Amino acid sequence: MKKGWKVLAAICLSSALLLGCQETEELGTGTVVGNENKIALAEESNLMQLSPDELKVYAAFKKKFDDRVLKEADPIMVAKLYFHAIETHDYNTQYELFVDDVEQREWSKQEHMKMMQEEGPKMAEKMRKLFARMQEVKFIEVDQKTGYLEFPEEGENLGQFQMVKNKAGIWKVKFRPMQWGYNMK
């Protein structure tokens, strides 16, 4: 009788495992359906142009670099503020829009200012060209604290602009935010 119980338990366990495997469809990327990243926001917007309300938020943030000004800002708005800072050569504000958690900082403000004096104008030109043809902005949420704006590149490739919530739950720009060349297929 004991042997029969073990065999029955093994059959039930095997059946449950097989049934579970059959009911989850894979996307071909190693991601199980239902676990894929979700589009959290999608809006028609020009990433290089701030609305009057966004300009007010930018001015208020620039005044004291108080993250509480950004508390109600969604990640698309924070990205637009970041791009505006680069476009207007306001590298101090650009740096303050990076995530402020110490463990995520990759370089100092002084290093940033020096780097942007050389690279900032080229970066602004590249962004203008890249984002000029965008009609819709999508923010893809990876989890409750991270996500990225997805943008088309040449051909079928997609780029990503990475965002992260700081410890206060405010969306900020991740250091080295641009990821290039992800194929759409």
Tell me what the structure shows.
By secondary structure, the protein is α+β, with helices and mostly antiparallel strands. The protein has two domains: 1-36; 37-183, no CATH class. It is 42% helix and 23% strand. It contains five helices and five strands. The chain has helices at 2-23, 52-64, 75-87, 91-96, 109-132, and strands at 38-44, 136-141, 146-152, 157-165, 171-183. Strands 1-2-3-4-5 form a five-stranded antiparallel β-sheet. A hairpin with a 4-residue loop joins β3 (146-152) and β4. It starts with a helix and ends with a strand.
Condensed summary:
The chain is an alpha+beta fold. The protein has five helices and five strands.
How many discrete structural domains?
2
In DSSP terms (H or I, runs of 4 or more residues), the helix count works out at: 5
Work out the radius of gyration. 22 Å
Q: Unreliable runs, pLDDT <50, ≥5 residues?
A: 12-33, 181-185
- Count the beta strands: 5
Shape: globular
* Element order: H for helix, E for strand: HEHHHHEEEE
Q: What is the averaged pLDDT score?
A: 80
Q: Please give the alpha-carbon distance between the first and last residues.
A: 55 Å
Strand content: 15-25%
- Structural class of the helix and strand makeup? alpha+beta
What is the topology, as strand order, of the major beta sheet? 1-2-3-4-5
Helical amount: 40-55%
The largest sheet, given as strand count, sense and whether it forms a barrel, is: 5 strands, antiparallel
